[in-house]
User: What shape does this take?
Amino acid sequence: MTKVSIIGAGNVGATVAQYLATKNLCDVVMLDINEGAAKGKALDLTQAIALTGGSAKITGTSDYKDTAGSQVIVITAGSPRKPGMSRDDLLKINASIVAGAARQSHRHSPNAIFVVVSNPLDIMAYLVWKETGVSTSRVIGMAGVLDSARFQSFIAEELKVSAEDVRAMVLGGHGDLMVPLPRFSTVNGVPITELISKKKIDAMCKRTANGGAEIVNHLKTGSAWYAPGAATAAMVEAIITGGRKLYPCSVHTGEKHGLPAVFTGLPVVIGKRGVERVIKLKLNKDEIAALQASAKSIEENVKRLNELQAEAAKPAAEAALSAAPAAPPADASTKATDTSAKS
Ligand SMILES: NC(=O)c1ccc[n+]([C@@H]2O[C@H](COP(=O)([O-])OP(=O)(O)OC[C@H]3O[C@@H](n4cnc5c(N)ncnc54)[C@H](O)[C@@H]3O)[C@@H](O)[C@H]2O)c1
Assistant: This one.
């Protein structure tokens, strides 16, 4: 069976595992720095499958060796937001965790496609690409599928129609400047601009951009996981089944819409090779301006990330100059370690 490894067996990671296992799509390895949590959740899920059916093997571990040969690596390791925190506040905490997770899992699964979930999402997707050196088609950030699902649910609620019949498109970064696109959002092909007033659509776009924070404010101690888990599992399914699904995902911009070279939400077709195609929509002036503003803010955070990494590397380089020659490389061990204190 296809093997998918999930780095970070917290709320989102375990929910992704549950969706994949329940659909019997693949064997799942859950890796966490907290070995007990990974092992305990894997056992619990295995026992759930005895009731729901299927033959997926679920393993919990803290050793990257157990992830070897994965077709897809999902990165959910790191901290979620607390009330009042922006996703960008997480940059410092999560950068070193995600960089270590990317390097270690790439070493054991050199052909894997990465689905990145940890926040700040677009910056972490860029970081995974940078740390692994894989082609841009093999790193896909999960944001647009979730943000579009949130927009879809608000549209369905407003129109009192089945959410299944609603298709929505949210592009740009996974933050306050995300770009919901009402012109490309429909109910069974009918644009919502024909069905809902501009005032109401504007309010729904705003609620979508604040969709994550709305849940954080209720929960007080973490962020959402059911919809993020379902969105991530849908992307993994499209990859391992060669589903060729058109989803908004955070991908490298290339030359699209005159955007800076960052990872941001664009419509893409995903399948066996990861990003199979980036679709160029005919956006109007306002939509392009909003997408550019969002990409610009991601570009600024990528700069901040590069600065943080350079600062963190300085003491290590100085120590290396004065250290004995036989010191092992920082992440030579295959066990997950807490690297968050470094930056
Ligand atoms: N992209 C999105 O749309 C989206 C949606 C929801 C959550 N998120 C992000 O996903 C991440 C996970 O969220 P969550 O709710 O599952 O958090 P969580 O705290 O429940 O789980 C995070 C897990 O990562 C583990 N971890 C920490 N450092 C590690 C390391 N070095 N190696 C391996 N595992 C490590 C923790 O032990 C924990 O189990 C957060 O950054 C959150 O902001 C993104």
